[in-house]
């Protein structure tokens, strides 16, 4: 007799088994709803196949699918999140990895330049590029001449920009070539990509700081990071909503992928625009993403002597400096190429402090020291508060003629011949690590101030300043560092940087 063949002696057992089976069934249903991402059972396959589909599954998400013809939105499963059908853009979901902290290997640089300018601009890029470590390409408008060959191993590998003449049918395609560099960079290198960084060939980038900042953002979401122009009317004429691309802008991997997918459609849509950054911003805005501005990205839309600007940097890690061809060499008695390499000597020791402003006082002499780490020291012959010194001295000139202020996106101080207002200027000379694992930086006087002393304690005697800073990098910048003047002896002054005390006032 079969085990399920019940009689009067086993009726109670059968009922118990039936009730038990029904309880298990309802428990299964409840657990399936509570944990929808668990694999489904094969116990009831026929029931699932015949059940009517009346709604979007809770396991589906709405993601943008951008075709070559027109943008569309589709619901896709979490099990198969790839959406592109462009053979030049990989569908491999491994292009966006999430299982480790962001590092330099997750960044890809696309630098757009010209063959003519590269002859003198390559010194800028080679000052920060790390061969066989930094990922990316330089896109030239034509093949390099014999003077540039064989290609320097210290330079990024080069590519020739795509020919867009038949595509857009415009006489001047400079702006579109720059924007199209986004597609060409992504096409060349996107495996394990988290951030696409675009920039020009006359910029220097501070890679450690860039990685540190980007690591704070979720690279799996849509981000467009960039900087404004320092010249207020550049933002007004073009857009306050755009990142000025010469100094660099950063696209998270999902945004870079979506932008590359639709970029040619977008270039056709905005073919009337003559500015590359404005075109890029417009294409990104149409995807639904707005600019997140960062203070450490500097377009350097200014002319002449930029030392005042660089000596009072915002309280934010330095990420890039652009337009080195448009300002004077940033160090006295050096050309632009040598000045760039000189600044990077300090940056190689500690990018977290580069250009960060630290202010301290020597009250016995009634002096104030304002340090721009790795670049300059300003010595004033009276006690001055940080609230005043945080504003750059306007040693630089306007980017374009503009008769009435405001000229800049920040407040400035005008240069002064008042001996109590004008600083003695010292510039970075050398750097080394001490046996105690401190970093020892020396600054030498640029030139005599040639003003009467502010008081009886003239600082004209000081010719060298040394600054001692911790070897440890700064990871938090919600508050600046402080310093102590530990010794003034003869023609030298020694300063030690430290963390500020809880209630310390820098005034």
UniProtKB/TrEMBL annotation:
Keyword Membrane on entry: yes
Swiss-Prot/TrEMBL keywords: Membrane, Transmembrane, Transmembrane helix
InterPro entries to which the protein is assigned, alphabetical: DUF604
Polar residues biased stretches: 72-86
Superkingdom, natural source: Eukaryota
Pfam family, any one: DUF604
TM helices/strands, residue ranges: 12-35
Compositionally biased spans, kind Low complexity: 87-97
Region feature (Disordered): 72-97
Signal sequence, start to end: none
Protein name: Uncharacterized protein LOC111412546
């Amino acid at each position: 007799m079969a085990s399920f063949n019940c009689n009067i002696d086993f009726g109670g057992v059968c009922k118990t088994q039936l009730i038990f089976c029904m309880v298990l069934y309802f428990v299964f249903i409840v657990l399936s709803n509570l944990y929808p991402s668990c694999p489904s059972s094969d116990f009831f396959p026929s029931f699932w196949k015949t059940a009517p589909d009346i709604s979007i599954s809770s396991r589906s998400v709405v993601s943008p699918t951008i075709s070559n013809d027109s943008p569309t939105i589709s619901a896709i499963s979490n099990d198969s999140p790839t959406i592109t059908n462009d053979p030049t853009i990989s569908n491999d979901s491994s292009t966006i990895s999430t299982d480790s902290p962001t590092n330099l290997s997750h960044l890809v640089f696309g630098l757009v330049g010209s063959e003519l300018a590269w002859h003198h601009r390559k010194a800028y890029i080679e000052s920060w590029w790390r061969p066989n470590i930094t990922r990316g390409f330089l896109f030239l408008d034509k093949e390099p001449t014999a003077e540039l060959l064989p290609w320097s191993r210290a330079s990024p590998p080069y590519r020739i920009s795509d020919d867009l003449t038949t595509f857009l049918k415009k006489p001047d395609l400079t702006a579109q070539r720059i924007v199209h560099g986004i597609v060409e960079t992504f096409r060349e290198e996107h495996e394990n990509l988290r951030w696409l960084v675009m920039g020009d060939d006359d910029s220097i980038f501070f890679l450690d700081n860039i990685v540190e900042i980007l690591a704070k953002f979720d690279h799996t979401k849509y981000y467009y990071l960039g900087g404004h122009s320092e010249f207020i009317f550049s933002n007004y004429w073009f857009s306050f909503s755009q990142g000025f691309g010469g100094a660099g802008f950063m696209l998270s991997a999902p945004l870079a992928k979506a932008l590359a997918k639709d970029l040619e459609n977008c270039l056709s849509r905005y073919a009337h625009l003559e500015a590359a950054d404005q075109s890029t911003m417009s294409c990104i805005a149409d995807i639904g993403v707005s600019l997140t501005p960062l203070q450490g990205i500097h377009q350097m839309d200014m002319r002449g002597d930029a030392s005042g600007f660089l000596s009072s940097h915002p309280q934010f890690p330095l990420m890039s400096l652009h337009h080195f061809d448009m300002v004077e060499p940033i160090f006295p008695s050096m050309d632009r190429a040598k000045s760039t390499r000189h600044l990077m000597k300090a940056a190689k020791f500690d990018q977290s402090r580069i250009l960060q402003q630290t202010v301290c006082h020597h009250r016995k002499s009634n002096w104030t020291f304002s340090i721009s780490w790795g670049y300059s020291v300003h010595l004033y012959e009276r006690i001055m508060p940080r609230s005043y010194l945080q504003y750059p001295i306007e040693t630089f000139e306007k980017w374009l003629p503009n008769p009435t202020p405001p000229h800049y996106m920040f407040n400035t101080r005008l240069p002064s011949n008042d001996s109590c207002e004008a600083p003695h200027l010292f510039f970075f000379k050398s750097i080394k690590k001490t046996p105690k694992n401190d970093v020892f930086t020396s600054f030498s006087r640029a030139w005599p101030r040639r003003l009467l002393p502010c008081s009886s304690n003239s600082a004209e005697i000081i010719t060298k300043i040394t600054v001692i800073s911790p070897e440890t990098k700064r990871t938090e910048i919600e508050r600046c560092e402080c310093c102590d003047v530990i010794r003034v002896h003869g023609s030298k002054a020694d300063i030690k940087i430290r963390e500020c005390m809880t209630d310390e006032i820098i005034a």
